UniProtKB/TrEMBL annotation:
Protein name: Nuclear export mediator factor NEMF homolog
Feature: compositional bias, Polar residues: 680-689
Family that this chain belongs to: Belongs to the NEMF family.
Signal peptide as annotated in the record: none
Location in the cell: Cytoplasm; Nucleus
Taxonomic placement: Eukaryota, Metazoa, Ecdysozoa, Arthropoda, Hexapoda
Matching InterPro entries: NFACT-C, NFACT_RNA-bd, RQC_Subunit_NEMF
Annotated coiled-coil segments of the chain: 297-334, 451-478
Sequence ranges of Basic and acidic residues compositional bias: 669-679, 816-842
Length: 953
């Protein structure tokens, strides 16, 4: 497969790229350490020029994945080339070197691209002094490619016309038998494709060889005519734009149902003679052909891999068939040989008995084995009729080998067919412990045994072949399905980070390292987004994308805080720490002293204090998205009550219980008492608001409705401390009928099954609450604490916590409705920005469009697929366990000793064993690559799930 430009390709592409002259450099990016993108623009004209060291240069319309953080070489080019105009683009001589000049006179800079050998990209100033070089090295003893060295402009080979005498000299120096094309290619600048093309035009095939089918004196004129044609092709390419062609090869598919697949082999500016009979695709220009060729390499690799897997599956099936055939053939041959040996012994019974008796007699006289061998040889030499038939003594196994012939065979002419009953002579092993008749019977028994094996093999062959064919068909089907899934798989922009979608449909992203932390804050975080960080050095910077700009609900803040803690050293250390959150405009790269902070470090003004599982999201077809809208939304208190009542009766076997020990409870009480003491001592500066909210814990120990204390201090900036502690205050639903009022005020009539589950759950809650120790004293404390609280104060506190409480409209709330019917709820004022957040000058516009459609993209992902959904692919996600509580496929992760890769594979294996899984869900789960499964795991883990040990066994 062709993967790099030759000289003729460079001539053609340079001619086409002249249209870029006059465009200014908008920005520069790097795809990898060898491939760079230069974005050029003039008014409405926009082009992206791709440079790959050693391989290619062309414009591209394909969206290439850029590196997360620009490399040092990219930054250097940005510094010198940004906003410069492309003044010239030329090929140096006839060599594979291209010089791009940006800017003019003393402000000019050059990018020199080398497309031969290992390749190189060199950045120089107007005097060709090297400012940066992609691959520093030394050529010979003098020429150095390093910073501050001069780039040698005269190193390129010039185009020169070769004379007839020089061509004759080339042929005379060649060896007899050398291929004509291979002799000319290294001595000319036209390239192998052009030379082969012009030689074929003159009647010279690839089989033409010097001194055999080629005569120098007779054929030199044809060769010169071919070289003249090659020169004409080059001159035309320098003046006119050529079309583009991709030469293809039809791949033989093992599966008859699979579509025909043509793999791309080569790209060329013209359709050469040697490719005219091959399948090919034509393009308007050479740039388009090259762009299509390289942009489709990845999908082509998937198809080629599928073709290879199909071939291997069919090869296994063929091997099974061959193995059975070979077994049957061997058993048939064994039967024939054993039968012939038995008949030979029978027909030579007297001779065999005499040989056995002679050897037994000598052995009875206690003669050594070496002497016996010598005696047999001497007797055979003297013409003994018995001894001359003994070919070998195998006394260690009590056998002798006799050369036996058919005594009843009649001599026949060579041209006549032999008698079927005539036995061929052969060496037969005879057991000395048996008579001739017994030896013959032994061979007959072996023949019958082989016949039985043959019959069993024939009987099992049908079943084995059918089983192998069924497995092969299933393999072919899976290969094709997985290939189609991988082709349809969308790579979302946020997958390069740690990420998950919160239970309230907020996209949460986190950096994998310092560079990604820097990138998230600079490029992806907006002032309305929320920045979350664990209270530990070196943790991931977590950002909650908040397109609406409204306050982010506490549940999502809690989940993001859990993520920040898990993606830190706290996971490996198995410790729990706090997490903090601030608004996006409270994050800065500048310290109070004016010092610029290092990569991944930020200055935070003000902070709010905050108190995991692997699953699979499924990509939905556009028509199925509407069915899953509202799966992840902000739930009110009553909605959560209804969900918890329904869920409590459905799942009685918990995956894993989170239990606090006595020390944890003491610390929690001590921390709470300290905060209460501080708030009571500092009444003028502190406003305390207390309210009830539901805990989203998944424990079966009993319902928990934590009292949340919000402490607001006005010291240099707003500081909100959110602390949670267990509470046993149970709020019964005020309506005892079959209607539940949700947070939006809409009544929902429960079905009989839901009603029975609710009543059953209430009875269980009541029994559990009565049986818990210390419950009465806690209820007494709560009653004493909230004895002066009225309904209005409670409602205000619930609104501060963004919960609608009971969900019913009070008389006062009805009065507060404005003329348009909207509620006048208490607003929580956002902190005012301390500064304008820094924005990068480069690259921001690339991702703006992607970031703007966050909600649209995550709405197309669901963790609760239905049978009616058309699933496109699966996306593994790591998130707090409460976030994934309603997902169909999930397994709990805790810090442990298991390796990430093995844990991820075990999780998928558990998903595939699910009884409710559909075939399409199996297919998309199998298509997920191992590296995608394990890359987001926080470290060494332990899996927790029902019947997990049974699965491992």
């Amino acid at each position: 497969m062709k993967t790099r430009f030759n000289t003729y390709d460079i001539v053609c592409v340079v001619t086409e790229l002249q249209k870029l002259i006059g465009l200014r450099v908008n920005n520069i990016y790097d795809i990898d350490n060898k491939t760079y993108l230069i974005r050029l623009q003039r008014n409405e004209e926009k082009f992206v020029l791709l440079l790959e060291s050693g391989n290619r240069i062309h414009t591209t319309n394909f969206e290439w994945p850029k590196n997360i953080a620009p490399s040092g070489f990219s930054m250097k080019m940005r510094k010198h080339l940004k906003n410069k105009r492309l003044e010239s683009l030329r090929q140096l001589g006839m060599d594979r070197i291209i010089d791009l000049q940006f800017g003019s006179s003393e402000a000019a800079y050059h990018i020199i691209l080398e497309l031969y050998d290992r390749g190189n990209i060199v950045l120089t100033d107007y005097e060709y002094t090297i400012l940066n070089v992609l691959r520093p090295h030394t050529e010979g003893d003098k020429v150095k490619f390093a910073v501050r060295e001069k780039y040698p402009q005269d190193r390129a080979r010039e185009n020169k016309t070769i004379s007839k005498e020089e061509v004759v000299n080339i042929f005379e120096n060649a060896k007899n038998g050398d291929q004509l094309k291979k002799v000319l290619v290294p001595n000319l600048e036209y390239g192998p494709a052009v030379i082969e093309h012009v030689l074929l035009k003159q009647g010279f095939t690839n089989a033409t060889r010097i001194g055999k089918s080629f005569n120098i004196q007779e054929d030199i004129d044809k060769v010169m005519a071919a070289l003249t044609e090659a020169e004409r092709i080059f001159q035309l390419a320098k003046q006119n734009h050529e079309k583009g062609y991709i030469i293809q090869k039809k791949e033989e598919r093992a599966s008859e149902t699979a579509e025909e697949f043509y793999s791309n082999q080569e790209f060329h500016p013209i359709l050469f003679e040697q490719h005219s009979s091959m399948p090919h695709k034509e393009f308007a220009n050479f740039n388009e052909a090259v762009d299509e060729f390289f942009s489709s390499l990845e999908s082509q690799k998937l198809e080629l891999k599928a073709v290879q897997q199909e071939r291997e599956a069919m090869k296994k099936l063929e091997n099974v068939r061959k193995d059975h055939d070979q077994r049957l053939e061997a058993l048939e041959k064994t039967q024939n040989v054993d039968k012939q040996k038995a008949e030979l012994i029978t027909r030579n019974q007297e001779l065999v008995d005499k040989a056995i008796l002679a050897i037994q007699t000598i052995l009875a006289n206690q003669v050594s084995w070496e002497d016996i061998s010598d005696m047999v040889k001497d007797a055979a030499a003297k013409g003994d009729p018995v001894a001359k038939h003994i070919k070998q003594l195998k006394l260690e196994i009590n056998h002798i080998s006799l050369y036996l012939t058919d005594p009843y065979a009649e001599p026949q002419d060579s041209d006549e067919s032999s008698d079927e009953n005539q036995l061929p002579p052969m060496v037969v092993d005879v057991d000395l412990a048996l008579s001739a008749f017994a030896n013959a019977r032994k061979y007959y028994d072996l023949k019958r045994s082989a016949a039985k094996k043959q019959q069993k093999t024939i009987e099992s062959q049908t079943k084995a072949l059918k089983s192998a064919e069924r497995k092969t068909k299933q393999t072919l089907k899976e290969v094709q399905t997985i290939t189609n899934i991988n082709k349809a798989r969308k790579t979302y922009w946020f997958e390069k980070f740690f990420w998950f979608v919160s239970s309230e449909n907020y996209l949460v992203i986190g950096g994998r390292d310092q560079q990604q932390n820097e990138l998230i804050v600079k490029r992806y975080m907006k002032p309305t987004d929320v920045y979350v960080h664990a209270d530990i050095h070196g943790a991931s910077s977590v950002v909650i994308k908040n397109p609406s700009g409204q306050p982010v609900p506490p549940k999502t803040l809690n989940e993001a805080g859990t993520m920040a803690i898990c993606y830190s050293v706290a996971w490996e250390a198995k410790v729990v720490t706090n997490a903090y959150w601030v608004w996006g405009d409270q994050v800065s790269k500048t310290a109070p002293t004016g010092e610029y902070l290092t990569t991944g470090s930020f200055m935070i003004r003000g902070e709010e204090k905050l108190p995991t599982a692997v699953a699979s999201n499924f990509g939905l077809e556009d028509g199925c998205v509407e069915r899953h809208l509202g799966e992840r939304k902000v739930l009110t208190a009553t909605e959560e009550d209804a969900l918890s009542l329904a869920d409590s009766s459905q799942s009685k076997e918990e995956v894993e219980l989170e239990i606090l020990d006595e020390s944890d409870e003491d610390n929690l009480k001590e921390e709470t008492n300290t905060e209460e003491l501080k708030s009571s001592e500092n009444i003028p500066e502190t406003t305390q608001v207390e309210g009830d909210d539901d805990d989203s814990s998944d424990s079966d120990a009993g319902p928990k409705f934590p009292d949340t204390h919000i402490k607001i201090q006005h010291v240099g900036g707003t500081k909100i401390n959110i602390l949670t502690k267990p509470s046993t205050k149970i709020e019964e639903n005020k309506n005892e009928d079959d209607v539940i009022y949700l947070g939006d005020g809409k009544p929902v009539v429960l079905k009989p099954s839901q009603k029975s589950r609710r009543n059953k759950s209430k009875e269980e809650i009541k029994q559990q609450s009565q049986s818990k120790r210390g419950q009465k004293s806690k209820l007494k404390k709560i009653k004493e604490k909230y004895k002066d609280q009225d309904e209005e104060e409670r409602q205000l506190r619930m609104e501060i916590l963004q919960s609608s409480g009971t969900g019913k409209e009070t008389k006062k709330s009805k009065k507060n409705k404005d003329s348009h019917g909207k509620d006048r709820k208490t607003e929580i004022k956002l902190p005012k920005p301390f500064f304008v957040k820094e924005r990068p000058e480069d690259g921001a516009e690339d991702d703006e469009a992607n970031v703007q459609v966050d909600v649209d993209m995550i709405d197309a992902l669901t963790g609760i697929p239905t049978a009616e959904d058309e699933l496109l692919f699966a996306v593994p996600v790591i998130a707090p366990y409460n976030t994934l509580s309603n997902y169909k496929f999930k397994v709990k992760l805790t810090p442990g000793t298991g390796k990430r890769g093995k844990a991820a594979r075990t999780a998928v294996a558990m998903f595939l064993k699910d009884r409710t899984i559909t075939q399409r869900e199996k297919d998309v789960l199998k298509a997920v690559k191992d590296e995608q499964l394990a890359r987001n795991l926080p470290g060494k883990v332990k899996l927790s799930a029902p019947k997990l040990q049974t699965l491992k066994k």
